[in-house]
Amino acid sequence: MFKREVEFFIFDIFIAILKIEQTSSKFTNPQNLLYSYTDWDSVIREFEIIGEASKYLLNENILQQEHRVVVDFRNVIIHEYFGIDSDEVWDIIHYKLKNFKKVILKIISSIDTDLKIELADAFIEDNKYLDFVTKELEALKSTQEVKNTTSPKLKPW
């Protein structure tokens, strides 16, 4: 089995967050999201990706241990899928995901500029059918490099 570079996981998380934001923006309450099974399943799958990728960032000490809650949430939705609380998912989407996105953006900003551009281009190619993703990735390419490589002290979800 090959070792995937950690920067890929960072971008995986960022794109999963964008997909959750886009999908959930069509709904005004958790029940409507839940009852739209394709949208619900999409959101849950993206949370699974976020949690799995976050596990690698924790193992590499890129995320603070307080972000273990993200991995724990992934474990709940994988192993206790029958008991997923739509209100909890809604709360995470609308009140907690923004802070985690800020953490991920801070980490992305600390990636070497050339590598960040190379990764953004690769993910743009993979997601060229998703305008909202390609727009955000294009914006990342033009951001200034930040010298601080530690993750910011923001609250986990």
Distinctive features:
globular, 157 residues, mainly alpha
Give a brief outline of the structure.
The chain is mainly alpha-helical and 157 residues long. The protein is built from 7 helices and no strands. Helix 1 packs across helix 5.
Low-confidence stretches: 145-155
> What is the molecular shape?
globular
Give the tally of β-strands. Answer: 0
Computed CA radius of gyration, to the nearest angstrom: 15 Å
Explain this structure.
By secondary structure, the protein is mostly helical. It has a domain at 6-110. The protein contains seven helices and no strands. It has helices spanning 6-24, 30-35, 37-59, 68-79, 86-109, 113-126, 131-141. Helix 3 (37-59) packs across helix 4 (68-79) and helix 6 runs antiparallel to helix 7. The longest helix is centred in the middle third of the chain and has 24 residues, at 86-109. Mean pLDDT is 89; it is low at 145-155.
